[in-house]
Design goal:
Length: 402
């Protein structure tokens, strides 16, 4: 029998739906198809100008070589200050690491810790990559359904029930992609209390959307509430979303020195270090004035209102008003089984996503990619005009489903 070149590991994962959606949409746009893109996973605002100046300067000053694998001392010092200033958490220099995006650090943390069969508890809906990266490294993704009525938040009793001797990690993401939920202090305290009773469990807390909170929702960093768990918490963050710097590929994490050293070992064998210019840019973003963040959050809050108002006009869908992030996650269950244009029957969530794109030019991502179906994720990170036109096309589409 002919042997396959591909590893069994590769077969355990799927391409990221949001990354693929971006590819497909750019192909369609090149063919001049009018597309309203509600899949966008990155802010449309540009990085602040002082960040761009810093990159030019860094290039001219010859900061064009490898850096230490865990990041330049200057950037790590800026990250230390950021954690103190924004999150009230103190990390020592050996407790910080920089990666090529938050995604790389999450990937490397799982690579550094998971043995075959280790369990990782992931509340659903979840950001696609947690699930697939756990599987990539032979771990078992134990997903817990979190209901819309409960704000898509993990309930302490459900967490308690899911814990076994093999549980190694709990993954928390606040504000959450895709649901938009933001965990409050008492909710985090209840979950942390359970974690503290099980010493085999570590927690990855992905706080990459921390600044995007609306209607008075308050972001609280999990590690700030649990100094006694600091040796078991890996706090993930980055500059991609906050400063519109997704292409710079800089993420970072604070956590126990031993785990950070393990992550560093793997980085020395994979990317060696994150881009030197990206690191110079990230340092300028973290150290510089933060007024662009405030302005961008205000702009996102307006787009959230806009999309919310338009979605309210669609009958029959259940909407969770996001407290943070930049997505709506809507329940489209009542529309399955109905007929649309040319008598097409919408038999599944996937069929609905394809139908909306084909017939109305509206690009969305199906909830199954986030472990929760039948839902659609709709982004309000794009330009206002596109959000408006996309939501209006969605309303027409749902109105015409009988
Ligand atoms: N975590 C969450 C919840 C995200 O939504 C994303 C990007 O979509 C990331 C991490 C990855 O961020 P980065 O660009 O820093 O790799």
């Amino acid at each position: 029998m002919k042997q396959s070149i591909y590893s069994a590991r590769l077969r355990r994962i799927r391409p990221s739906a949001s990354v693929m959606a971006k590819e497909i949409i750019s192909q369609l746009k090149k063919q001049n198809r009018p597309i309203f893109d509600l899949t966008i996973g990155e802010p449309s605002f540009e990085p602040p100008s002082h960040v761009l100046d810093a990159v030019t300067r860094a290039m001219r000053e010859g900061k064009t070589k490898y850096t230490p694998p865990r990041g330049t001392p200057e950037l790590r010092s800026a990250i230390r200050e950021k954690f103190l200033r924004d999150n009230h958490v103190e990390y020592q220099p050996d407790e910080l690491v920089v990666g090529s995006g938050a995604k790389q650090i999450i990937d490397t943390a799982f690579a550094a810790t998971l043995n075959s069969g280790d369990e990782v508890i992931i509340p659903a809906p979840y950001w696609i990559s947690y699930h697939d990266l756990v599987r990539l490294y032979g771990g078992r993704a134990v997903t817990i359904d979190c209901k819309l009525e409960q704000g898509f938040k993990l309930q302490p009793d459900d967490l308690q029930r899911a814990i076994t001797k093999r549980t190694k990690w709990l993954v928390l993401n606040t504000p959450n992609n895709p649901s938009g939920s933001v965990y409050g202090k008492t909710e985090l305290e209840a979950l942390g209390q359970i974690v503290s009773e099980h010493e085999q469990i570590w927690v990855i807390v992905d706080e990459i959307y921390e600044h995007f909170c609306y209607d008075g929702a308050e972001f609280i960093s999990f590690a700030s509430l649990f100094p006694r768990l600091r040796d078991r918490i890996l706090t993930i963050n980055g500059v991609s979303k906050t400063y519109g710097m997704t292409g710079f590929r800089i993420g970072f994490a604070g956590g126990p020195a031993g785990l950070i050293a393990g992550i560093e070992t793997l980085l020395t064998q994979s990317t060696s270090c994150a881009s030197s210019l990206g690191q110079a840019a990230a340092m300028a973003a973290l150290n510089g004035p933060q007024d662009s963040v405030t302005a961008n959050v205000a702009d996102l809050a307006e787009k959230r209102e806009l999309l919310s108002g338009l979605l309210q006009k669609i009958g029959g869908i259940r909407i969770f008003q996001p407290e943070g992030g930049f997505y709506f996650f809507i329940d489209v269950g009542p529309y399955l089984g109905r007929k649309g244009r040319r008598g097409v029957k919408i038999t599944s969530e996937g069929a609905l996503v394809a139908y909306l794109l084909r017939e109305y030019g509206v690009a969305t991502i199906g909830g199954a990619n986030y472990g929760c179906s039948p839902y659609l994720r709709l982004s309000f990170a794009g330009p206002k005009k596109e959000i408006q036109a996309g939501a209006e096309a969605l309303r027409r589409a749902f109105d015409e489903l009988r």
